[in-house]
Amino acid sequence: MIKVIIFDFDGVIVESVDIKTKAFAELFKKEGGDAVKKIVDYHLANTGVSRYEKFRYIYRQILKRDLSDGEFKGLCDRFADLVMQSVVEAPYVKGAEAFLKEHATKYKLFVVSATPQKEIEEIIRKRNIAHFFSAIYGAPTKKTDAVKGILENGDPESAVYIGDAISDYNAAKDNRIDFIARIDKDKGIFSDIDCLKIRNLTYLEKAIEELGSSY
User: Fold this and answer.
1) Which of 177, 120, 117 is nearest to 144 (CA)?
2) 100 closest CA partner among 125, 132, 131
3) Is the pLDDT at 187 greater than 60, yes or no?
4) pTM: predicted TM-score of the whole model, two decimal places
């Protein structure tokens, strides 16, 4: 029986993936069109990876130059400035808000995100949904480690992770818990992965019931 639900945030609770994509394009627009395309493609292929890791990869593998501590901090600060308010105001994934309101007392709910810790806490607080969650985990904590911490005093068979990125799936798999993929338009990156797939969170309760019946 499922007792614990772990949510990714961007693309699972709120429709904010495009906001982050536009921020990467804006942040690196001075590098030219070819570089921006490579950067955006890399970001989209790694949506569940923290911006900290992405900035280092972008400089090392795409821009082919060193990234100083000062430049790194500047990138982090500018990125946060570009996305914060937009994510606070972004629409919910269909069914997400209703699910939180209706099921926060039935399950223990958690957020595990690649967004920096203080930022994700502030976003959730400003959206007035912090009270739904037992705990919120952000970068630099790795998703796999965050899930491990959540499960320390619980049974892996009682937990499920809801995500939209391969990093979410891997965090669930590494901790031997069930995974439900939130897919948009088509199955995309999850087309060859054997897991439950839902288009939005109006289908989540039924998917969880389906998992529960398999035990």
Assistant:
1) 177
2) 132
3) no
4) 0.91
